[in-house]
Amino acid sequence: MSGAPLLRMRGITKSFLGVRVLHGVDLDLYPGRLHALVGENGAGKSTLMKVLAGVHRPDGGTVELDGEPVAFEHPVQAQRAGVATVFQEFNLLPERTVAENVFLGREIRRRGLVDGRAMERATGELLAGLDLEGIAPGARVRSLSVAQQQVVEIVRALSLEARVISMDEPTAALADHEVEALYRIIGRLRERGVAVLYVSHRMREIFDLADTITVLKDGHRVTTVPAGEITPAELVRRMVGRPVSAVFPEPLEPHGEHVGRVRLSVSGGGNAQLDGIGFEVRGGEILGMAGLQGSGRTEVAHALFGVERFTRGEVRVDGRRIDPRSPLRAVRAGLALVTEDRKARGLALHQSVAANGRLVLDAVWPFGSARRARRLPGILSSVELVARGGHDQEVRYLSGGNQQKVVLAKWLAAEPGVMVLDEPTRGIDVGARQAVYRLVRELAAAGVAVVLISSELPELIGMADRLLVLRDGRVAGELPGGASEEAVMAMATGSPHGGPAPEAVDPRTHPAASPSDGPPPHPSRHEEAAP
Predict the structure, then answer these.
(1) How many Å apart are CA 82 and CA 88, to the nearest integer?
(2) pLDDT tens digits for 68-79?
(3) Confidence (pTM)
């Protein structure tokens, strides 16, 4: 690559409690270019970003900015040098205004007093420089969407005159149109000559945006390569050490008394968001639920689970009519729901792995009950496999993939007959996805009826036996397993051609159909109020 790098990291090492997590990592960032950093959870990406941000001091190695050595002992030092980081968890004060957050800790003052108007003017100029509308400098941050809050983080970085901006999973909670807006912002940052370090699990984003890709595995730099010189399949292989064709496991031999029986049936289901919903799922079957943003996929899951219940129609589980007016009733009827937002709705982050594994059991079956006593040892055994530190480890310290495994363990404790999975692989890496896919196959083989909701068509096509496509709160139609992406998009949009859908492929074998490829899931308007 021509020209000198704006930022150069050489031989970066870092250990925690005697465990080496970075092994002599090298990284170069160039002005006006985006460098993607990829790898499985635990590969060292976040640690390297925190070294760059001044959160962690490296044990060894050097960092140079504009050819001069730097040693950041605190994030403020990094910011003053022009190195800013937008973390996945925002660091904003919700009760303060956009301008107050942008200038937090370095407020503009006049005669010793904070000059709010000057800060709002300066913030407005920064927003205008990015050609952004719809965010008022005087608005309270709590009133903003997730995407708008992310813009505030980026504007704050620009107010520091940042020349290097790192972004950690910036699209994890964004809807499709918000992702497009982020793309435009990144384009303007590059036009300004800002060097961008971008961490993401999503293959489509990586190949849309990156000039260069670095792969980390177990704290080692595996490769650094121009984005145009590697395929998605080869990138996945270097990340996980195995080919992408192994991502979607083959169906297992079904067994058990419930295989082939109708375990869930819905007829004429409707409420304020849904109308005329009808489908069946048999034991041993995986029903994929597809549709565009706002089509009603998550609303169906919440209606089944009593969050926004059906006000008309009929729901039956194992032939018995049920009326799930609450999540508690739904669980007792044999339903389980893995919500799309595990951190906000699926876990008690400050509690232990074991306590999270018992959440459903404690809420539904009282202490001393025979069912609780029978299931408890199995839960503790399963969650201990998830957490290397044991079942007393707090869930917040686990990787995203292991957190998702704890969520699944929590619901398996209820021994559900019907498992509804809403975006079960959101924000987790390829290796953790494979573990989730294997578990889904095992559940189906044991006679559980599985409803798999996903925004990623390769995932649905690779896992589902049938596909139910929703559009505008109604069932648009049904497709067999293995249907092409064009067919799904055509049904989802109501178009005979389905718009600009990707070329139809077999996700089990085609390299471009990696499990991270596809539009990001969108946040739902309704969230689970689960036990």
Answers:
(1) 20
(2) 999 999 988 998
(3) 0.58
